[in-house]
Amino acid sequence: MARVRRVRADVSHRGGRPGFVRVDDERTLTIPDYIGNNHFNTLGNLLESGRAGLLFIDFEGGHLLTLTGKAEILWETEDLQYFTGAERLWRFHLHSGRFIQHALPMRWDLDAFSPNSLMTGTWREADQKRRAQSGKHEWTRYQVTRTEYESDGIKSIYLAPESGVLLDFKPGQFLTLRARISAQEIVRTYSLSSAPEDSVYRVSVKRVLNPDASSPDGLFSNFLHDTIEAGDQLDALSPRGSFTYDAAETRPAVLLAAGVGITPMVSMMRHTFAEGFRTRSMRSLTLFAAARNAEARAFAQELAELQEQSRYRLRTFWSLGEVDRHLKVGTDYHHVGRISADLLQSVLPLDDYDFYVCGPAGFMQHCYDLLRDLGVQDKRIFAEAFGPSTLKREQDEATSPFVPEPVASEAVVHFHASAHEQVWTASDGTLLEFAEAHGYQPEFACRSGQCGACKVPLISGRVSYETACAYPVGDQEVLLCQAKPAADGSDMPTLSLDM
User: Fold this and answer.
1) Last residue of some domain: 130, 153, 179?
2) pTM for this one?
3) What pLDDT score was predicted for residue 1?
């Protein structure tokens, strides 16, 4: 007697927000697959046989649509990067189908969407993101939806694009803003304190006190504090920056921040919480924040709520320079003075951590040296500097050394667009400083090689960078704020810039 081969089918819900199924043509559908389907029964069956049946239910009308056909899994495709929440895609090829009207004896009304469904996208949103991505290097107009003070000196500005489409970003990145102030067009960068999951961008800006005409940084921050309110408009480039954080990493992480350096850390904390909810697995994250006093603790309430909601997978410890008698230790603050090795060792279990450091130059160097003295490898310390300051790192066996090209003692710099030439010498500094000294006004923001705002095309010649640039630079590009003419063996090298 011949044996009858049994075939068993897996029944699995594949859902999403309205619009999650894309009709490619009259016989083809493309459908996202989300994190909650990690048991892989259905996908395993599709890999084994490819046969699939789909059932669409009209809960309000009681109608049914049944489809049968073949399915294929799309593990890697360009569409995947634009569809929010999708882990992979799969494509259904129709063989036959049947629509049955009023098949169900019961009717249902939608009360609310699942919170998990609301963390996913639609194909309409994916198409909008794709189109917006093509203009990510162009200035975009944003509407200020609200403003809020986070401490006695830090103001948050919430920005929504007029296009209605927010480009994705990684926590830790910054936004480059442009405004016309006192008849000047000023460009500056500010770290995002919002999470990629938020519906608007949020930048949080520290007021720089006692600004004057020679202090453009103070000019811009005071403009944002004193002038910008809900309803105003600002121009911005898409988020960028290499100081980024991965919530999916299993290694626990520690954040060290001082002053306004807390802003990218808040983005990391918010993103970690959102990803923990989405994936049911939250990376362990501890923030040590230094502030002048209790009034200077930016985002204190927001961080306390995240700590409680995460059931202390996300922890915050405050180190204050000044402590009033009404403050409660363990609640309002946890340490007095600078962040120290004793503080870190009293809080952190013995483990292998990634460390992220952000704040003023002196604070960052102090934290870096402290961590190195504790035996932390250089490659485990990630840092974001403000302004032209550069962190002095100590290389170890785990660090890939950066070897700069020799800098010329003098060189001829040709400004191609204006057909102008000038002789550069070592005392002229970077090419940005050199260009400004000769009447040029190149665009810039961070002056530390991180934002790319001062990038210009290189027509000929070579440049040297004393330290590795955080912003990626092509062979035919120059970051003016960090570059100097490179020696080429001749007495007078020539460099040509398209500016």
Assistant:
1) 130
2) 0.82
3) 53
